[in-house]
Design brief:
This protein is mainly alpha-helical. 55% of the residues lie in helices and 2% in strands. It has one domain (46-169). The chain contains 7 helices and 2 strands. It is elongated, with a radius of gyration of 24 Å.
């Protein structure tokens, strides 16, 4: 009787997860039930490729922002974000890791819930696009105030005590 149950098993052995047909494109592209579509606790396991592209581009711009911030600090600017200023003065590497890490974790969470809306009219997918647009604007601003760009510094000048910290900060370059 037990052997007969094994023979009638309708499921087949699953292939290795990296070598099956769903490995690259995912299985669940939409919710099975209409009631599940409005449940925020049910993320999908497949996302449009353009979300990958916009996420990678946003992370690249985040890295460029961190680099430009360090370079502008070297040239006499001040960091406006108090938390990031503390991290910069502790270690430039720590600053880069925290900045990129927080951005990456936030983007992963947003991408996993891209199909939902906030306040019944703002799609989270559009929030991802807005973050990308803000980073584009931030990079444009940093390039506009870059020394030698013809635009004067809009940031406050560096205080006397910060010059030693800035030179110690960039000693690893």
């Amino acid at each position: 009787m037990l052997q007969q149950a094994y023979r009638s098993e309708r499921r087949i052995k699953q292939a290795h997860p990296w070598f099956n047909t769903h490995a690259l494109r995912g299985r669940r592209q939409s919710h099975r039930r209409e009631i599940d579509a409005n449940n925020p606790n049910l993320p999908l396991d497949w996302h449009h490729p353009h979300l990958l592209y916009i996420t990678v581009a946003t992370l690249f711009l985040c890295f460029a922002d961190a680099h430009n911030t360090l370079q502008l600090l070297w040239n006499g600017a001040l960091e406006a974000n108090i938390a990031m200023d503390v991290l910069i003065h502790k270690s430039a590497g720590l600053f880069m890791m925290v900045k990129l890490g927080l951005t990456a974790v936030g983007l992963v969470i947003l991408v996993s819930y891209h199909h939902l809306t906030i306040f019944n009219f703002i799609r989270i997918r559009h929030v991802i696009y807005s973050i990308f647009g803000m980073y584009v604007g931030l990079i444009a601003y940093e390039l506009a105030i870059w020394p030698g760009a013809g635009v004067p510094f809009i940031l406050l000048p560096m205080e006397e005590g910060h010059s030693a910290a800035a030179s110690a900060l960039f000693s690893w370059l």
